[in-house]
Amino acid sequence: MNSSIEKILFTEEEIREKVKQTGKKISNDYRDKNLVLVGILKGSVIFMSDLMRAIDTDCKIAFLTAKSYGNSTVSSGKIELEDTLKDSLGEDIAGKDIILVEDILDTAATLYAVREKIKELNPSSIRICTFIERNIKRNINLIPDYKCFDIQDGFIVGYGMDYAQNYRNLPYVGILKPEIYTITN
Ligand code: PRP
Fold first, then answer.
1. pLDDT at position 88
2. Where in 49-172 does DSSP place strands (E)?
3. Residue 76: its pLDDT value, please?
4. pTM of the full predicted structure?
């Protein structure tokens, strides 16, 4: 285990099983639809690549970049969006069935901003698939349509999730030792 990790929350095996189940649900729901998975970079990158391989109906992929945390452990609340949708998909998303793919739904500020932006592009439908939902009382009312895991407290990293851009490559999800971010914040 990485020395900055206090505890492993979800192992590679647990993750593999949940992602497989989620992919199966999406496959069943989207047969004969125009499915486009939209990954929100950078955190979703590992989940997106595993999820798309767990889906056995036709789908396309696209990406956009959203950031709000910078090098902090709390959201700045200000979402910076970089629109790479058209470039990454190579066509309009009007009329398509979109699933926004996210690593973690925390305050929901990111997904709310992204969903508002995508709505303007006239897709047929928009749903949300998050790898993890943090169960907190939030001001933004946004319920994911698909999710793999719930968490409560602790700053988590791994499986795409970072602290100051590190730890995204860990194949499991772990709680970061508090002294790592109390020293550097
Ligand atoms: C993280 C994560 C989600 C968002 C979730 O992104 O990847 O996009 O925060 O938090 P929220 O629900 O409170 O908005 P971050 O801004 O850290 O960028 P990253 O994806 O590049 O890590």
1. 76
2. 60-67, 80-82, 97-105, 125-134, 146-151, 156-157
3. 66
4. 0.93
The Cα–Cα gap between 90 and 71 comes to 32
Active site residues: 106
Q: Which pLDDT belongs to residue 73?
A: 72
Q: Which residue has the tokens 């698909």?
A: 146
pLDDT tens per residue across span 91-124:
889 999 999 999 999 999 999 999 998 998 899 9
Ligand 1: residue of 38, 46, 64, 69 to mutate (most ligand atoms within 8 A of CB) is 69
Counting residues of the chain whose pLDDT is more than 70, the rounded percentage is: 95
What is the C-alpha separation between 151 and 122, in angstroms, rounded?
33
- Ligand 1 probe mutation, 67, 71, 76, 135, most atoms within 8 A of CB: 67
Residue 143, burial from CB neighbour count under 10 angstroms (0-12, 13-18, 19+) = exposed
For 129-139, give one letter per residue: b (16+ CB within 10 A) or e.
bbbbbbeeeee
Q: Token match 């609340």: residue?
A: 77
> Which of 154, 148, 136, 143 lies closest to 47, judged by CA?
148
Measure 61 CA to ligand 1 centroid, in angstroms: 19
- Tell me which DSSP letter residue 69 carries: -
